[in-house]
């Protein structure tokens, strides 16, 4: 590997595009012992081809990237970028060993997944898809699905490309930026927006109607729903949601919550509480 | 014609259910496409939007596998927008057991695929990069078949049978299904809240709830308030101390992993 080259080996913009194109298929070969290992190797192949023309070097690089790997799939683009810059140095005989590359990959994958999962899966997708669903249900029809599909993919592809480029250009400097706590702040901000919006979703998008008549008093009949609406609209779904959170914290499986809610719905209708 | 369309959508949704990129497996996309293929766009969108609210908390984090919206969305949409003409609420309820089947298939394939991945080791040792690429492409196809095959099997069930078995349900059950379909969303909301909630974040949940009960506030206004509050909080917290401990700390995600694992 450390043999002399007249010109340093370098990835072309075309290689980077190929890698970007491959990065979106990373998770297809997800398997239990080594998780996303084949996927990551697949993403790196255009780089391996460019940087290691000798067959035994290419074999070593491929084996290196077939080791256990798992992260949040979009964050993989950032790790890919950094790995590309390290592989380039390694191929040019600079002071970057195979063990260094391995260590950086392992070091980044866990911490990046920890901050990215709550942002993409916990905040962005629920909010965007709930917004799209509400558009669809309030008469905008096809606009809802289109907003979700286009919005999500524009965000995702932009993020992937920018992250990969940034990682490739900055190399190991990325690690110092990440350890400064910027990402944690971003995640905290996203979680605040997420919690706020989940609170807002409950009264707007849960459809529960209580039976019209509660009791007949001397004032005539009263609607339970309108009484509750006076007090606090959306109170029933709020209590149900908080109950579910409480049970989740006590390690009740979500499946049992679904079954429980189904039974409450059936029973409530049968007893005439819900309408 | 529409059958082939649905099968192509099932294939795409199967791939996406695992790779999670274009999001064809999310009900709001998958059901809409099935609605388009069967010529019943309106009911497809209606099911997609309702089911989306039920599934939005299902996420694959770490090594855990959540229930699979792909099989659920495609088959439920076939029964709602297709010739069986089930009501949307029945589609939402049927989607739950379908999602569990899909989850089992995902977990199964993650084990079945091991010999294929081992082939990649052999290829790598021989420096055969082309073969590694092909092994990855084959696994993409396998993920697509993961949903396509069960969808094809379930489409074999006569639609008149599906239709009449719903029709013979007593009125009480049909009404109960309608109510339950509207209520199930709270489980997804709870999963998302449970993922993010720390003691310092609960006030934002209640502020959001309280403001949303005023129907004069538009969605955009609510979003602006949320972002404004987040910026304010980060500013003030930054001035106060540098105590971290935000959400998404390792313990939180680990707990969630476990819960999704248990499901």
Oligomer: heterodimer
Largest interface: A-B, 112 and 117 residues
Total helical elements of chain B: 13
Total DSSP E strands of chain B = 0
Secondary structure elements and their pairing?
The complex is a heterodimer of chains A (275) and B (263).
Chain A: H1 13-23, H2 37-51, H3 55-64, H4 76-91, H5 98-140, H6 143-170, H7 173-179, H8 182-205, E1 213-217, E2 220-223, H9 224-231, H10 235-249, H11 254-271
Antiparallel strand pairs in A: 1-2
Chain B: H1 2-19, H2 27-38, H3 41-55, H4 69-81, H5 88-112, H6 114-125, H7 129-156, H8 159-167, H9 171-183, H10 185-196, H11 202-212, H12 219-240, H13 250-262
Helix pairs in contact in B: 1-2, 1-4, 1-7, 2-3, 2-4, 3-4, 3-5, 3-10, 4-5, 4-7, 5-7, 5-9, 6-7
Description:
The complex is a heterodimer of chains A (275) and B (263). Chain A has 275 residues and is mostly helical. In chain A, 71% of the residues lie in helices and 3% in strands. Chain A has three domains: 13-108, no CATH class; 115-205, no CATH class; 213-271, no CATH class. In chain A, helix 4 (76-91) packs antiparallel against helix 5 (98-140). Chain B has a domain at 2-169. The longest helix of chain B has 28 residues, at 129-156. By secondary structure, chain B is mainly α.
Compact summary:
The complex is a heterodimer of chains A (275) and B (263). Chain A has 275 residues and is mainly α.
Short descriptors:
heterodimer; A: about 280 residues; mainly alpha; 3 domains; two-stranded antiparallel sheet; 11 helices; B: about 260 residues; 13 helices; flat; disordered C terminus
